[in-house]
Structures are given as C-alpha cells and as structure tokens.
C-alpha cells in the first residue's frame, strides 16, 4: 500500500511527494526524477534495515542495495537487492560500486560503544580501516558519502549540557575515537578533494529492531522486556541523562540532510537530536501505559561510558542551516514504540 502511494505521489512530482512524506514540511528532493543508486554497508543492523525500507519507498526498491557480512533474514532477502560486502575488502567494494553503478554510499558498518570496548583490535579494523576504504572509494568514484557519527564522539572534557556542534572532543572509547577520526577525515576529503561527505552525529536511536551493542540500548530493551514480562533490569543508574531520537526522526534527518543542496551547508558534520531523558523518566512515561512496570537498577561498565557522554545535545546549527526539526518527543516516542512492539509480539 505504502509503495503504491509512493508511486502515485512520485508520479505527481517532487513537491507533492515530499509534502506527503513530511506531512507539514515541503522538502524539495531534486533526485526523484533520476533516482540515485544507493549502497548501504552494515545494512542488517538496527538502522540499516529501516533506512533501506525508507529509501526504497522514495527511490524505488531496485535502487537501494543492502549489504553486510551476515546472512539476511528471508523477509529482508525477498524485499530487494542484498549482497555480501566486507568493508575491509577494498577490491570487493570497487567491484560492487562499478557493477551496481552506485551514486550514494551510506556507511553503517561499525562496532558500537559497548561491544567495541570488548574487542578493540576488531573495532580499529572495522571502524577505522573500514572508513579508510569507503572514503577512498567515494573519492575515486565521486560518490556522495554519508557516515553517521554519534554523541559518543564527545568525552568527559566536553561540555555536557548542552554539547555544542563545535567543542572539545576527547572521547574515552575506541568507538568515539573512531568516529572523531571519521568526522575529521571526511571534512579533510571535502576540503582537499571536494568529496560530498555528509555526517550526522546521532543520539541513541530508539526503534523496535534489536540494537547492536551500544550504551543507549537500554532505551530499546526496556520496551521489549516490559511488554513481555512487566519487568526490566537497567544497566545504567536511574538518573543517567542521555540524548535520544525515535527512528522515524532519524530516517527523516538522514534523508533531508542528504538532499539539502550543498550551498546551504555551512559545515559537513551536524549534531541532531530530539529529546533527553533518564531511565527513571523513561520508566515513568512507560508506566502511563503499562502501570504494572517494575524497573530495577544494576549499573555495569556501560555506566562509565554514559557518564562521559553529552546529556543534552545542541543541534541548533542543523535547525538553522537545513531546517532540521524533530517530531517525536518522549510521550510520542513511547506510544509509537509500544504500538510497534505490541504488533511484533501479536
Ligand atoms: N543505533 C544507534 O543508536 C546509533 C548508531 N549510530 C551509527 O549508525 C551506524 C549503524 O548503527 P547500528 O545499525 O545501530 O549498528 P549495528 O551494530 O546494529 O549494525 C552494524 C552492522 O555492521 C556490520 N558489520 C560489522 N563488521 C562488518 C564488516 N567487516 N563489513 C561489513 N559490515 C560489517 C554488522 O554485521 C552489523 O549488521 C553505525 O555506524 C553507528 O555508529 C550512531 C549513533 C547512534
Ligand atoms: C549512541 C550510539 O552511538 C550508540 N547507540 C551506542 O550507544 O553506542
């Protein structure tokens, strides 16, 4: 149904289609008549599956190629092009870009903050060598390159409330170090070679898909546990405030940023966010809909990571330069998540 609507609106022209997608906000996407061919690396993770679905609805199923090193679920495999791509294999990536005539590269492959600390050498390879490969590839084939960064690119010496777009960045995880590296390398390639590098620093992203080993994952796990059992044991202290965003805002931020004309961008790396809350505040909001909820707290090593991250993220530069605005606050996100997860379990 969504696909049929998308086709209908697309046939009406850019303006109408964009209005339909954004509801109240008309966003001009000049790519609709000649859709880009998009490769997503690490596409079987929490964000990749959703981003692929979102972009396929806009640009057509065949134009968005999902890739990863793991075997896809049947539904993912049947939903559109899926190929094996190891981001450590430069020649293999070259072959994919050439064979599939890729225009945009969305680079999601990474080891997240908590899992990265458990295997630093692998995180260095995937998060740093992987970026070297995709950035060279993007330069060689003149691709538009999106690499997400994170609130984890800041550290204890950064101002935490709020954390501005430009400030001191001394992260204390290999994940954060690798993301600062990607931000700086991307900016360098933009200035030195004119590479169309784009990077958003996302906060914790909340969706019903399983997260990949981060510090903000509690805000996803709590919904699954509470809706199944009524209970949740949180690995962060109840007062740990972190910036967050619902998946639908994340998808729209990524797309709106990708189609913003280069002339409007005053920088290549932007903070984006939607809300900030603590586990205690999240539990209280869920309790409005699931009154029997019982949450206990047992902080582990992820507490130290969270304590070094921003509490409130200042994304005013994105709001000024390309009109970024979120639509989901904590209440709207909680009701959407409860609906999403109830549908999954029914
Ligand atoms: N989920 C979140 O809350 C946030 C995510 N991000 C960034 O967004 C991107 C995607 O995040 P998620 O989907 O949550 O991560 P995830 O951990 O769920 O997925 C990462 C994917 O990378 C793949 N991968 C690992 N090694 C690979 C290799 N050698 N070659 C190809 N693929 C490989 C994995 O198989 C996995 O499917 C990451 O770069 C992450 O840093 C940034 C901020 C917040
Ligand atoms: C905020 C992120 O980058 C990620 N979800 C993590 O917690 O590692």
Automatic annotation (TrEMBL):
Coiled coil (residue ranges): none
GO molecular function: L-threonine 3-dehydrogenase activity
Membrane-crossing segments per the record: none
The protein's enzyme class: oxidoreductase
Cross-referenced Pfam families: Epimerase
The protein's annotated pathway: Amino-acid degradation; L-threonine degradation via oxydo-reductase pathway; glycine from L-threonine: step 1/2
Origin superkingdom: Eukaryota
EC number of this enzyme: 1.1.1.103
Residues in the signal sequence: none
NAD-dependent epimerase/dehydratase domain sequence ranges: 38-272
Role summary: Catalyzes the NAD(+)-dependent oxidation of L-threonine to 2-amino-3-ketobutyrate, mediating L-threonine catabolism.
Designated name of the protein: L-threonine 3-dehydrogenase, mitochondrial
Lineage, top ranks: Eukaryota, Metazoa, Ecdysozoa, Arthropoda, Hexapoda
């Amino acid at each position: 149904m969504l696909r049929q609507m998308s086709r209908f609106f697309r046939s009406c022209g850019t303006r109408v289609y964009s209005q339909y997608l954004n509801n109240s906000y008309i966003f001009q996407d000049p790519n609709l008549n000649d859709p880009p061919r998009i490769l997503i690396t690490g596409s079987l993770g929490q964000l990749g599956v959703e981003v692929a679905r979102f972009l396929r609805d806009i640009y057509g199923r065949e134009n968005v190629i999902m890739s990863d090193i793991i075997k896809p679920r049947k539904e993912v495999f049947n939903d559109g092009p899926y190929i094996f791509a190891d981001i450590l294999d430069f020649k293999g990536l070259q072959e994919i870009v050439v064979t599939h005539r890729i225009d945009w590269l969305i680079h999601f492959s990474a080891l997240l903050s908590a899992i990265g600390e458990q295997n630093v050498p692998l995180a260095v390879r995937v998060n740093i060598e992987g970026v070297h490969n995709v950035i060279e590839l993007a330069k060689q084939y003149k691709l538009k390159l999106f690499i997400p960064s994170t609130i984890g690119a800041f550290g204890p010496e950064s101002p935490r409330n709020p954390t501005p777009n430009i400030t001191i960045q001394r992260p204390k995880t290999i994940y954060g170090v690798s993301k600062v590296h990607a931000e700086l390398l991307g900016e360098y390639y933009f200035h030195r070679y004119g590479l169309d590098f784009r990077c958003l620093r996302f906060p914790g992203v909340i969706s019903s898909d399983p997260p990949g080993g981060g510090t903000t994952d509690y805000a996803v796990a709590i919904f699954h546990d509470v809706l199944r059992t009524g209970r949740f044991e949180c690995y962060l202290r109840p007062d740990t405030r972190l910036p967050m965003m619902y998946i639908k805002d994340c998808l729209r931020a990524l797309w709106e940023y990708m189609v913003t004309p280069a002339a409007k961008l005053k920088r290549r790396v932007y903070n984006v966010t939607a809300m900030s809350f603590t586990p205690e505040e999240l539990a209280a909001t869920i309790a409005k809909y699931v009154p029997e909820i019982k949450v206990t707290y047992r902080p582990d090593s992820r507490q130290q990571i969270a304590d070094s991250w921003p509490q409130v993220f200042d994304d005013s530069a994105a709001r000024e330069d390309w009109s970024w605005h979120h639509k989901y606050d904590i209440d709207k996100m909680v009701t959407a998540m409860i609906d999403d997860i109830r549908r999954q379990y029914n």
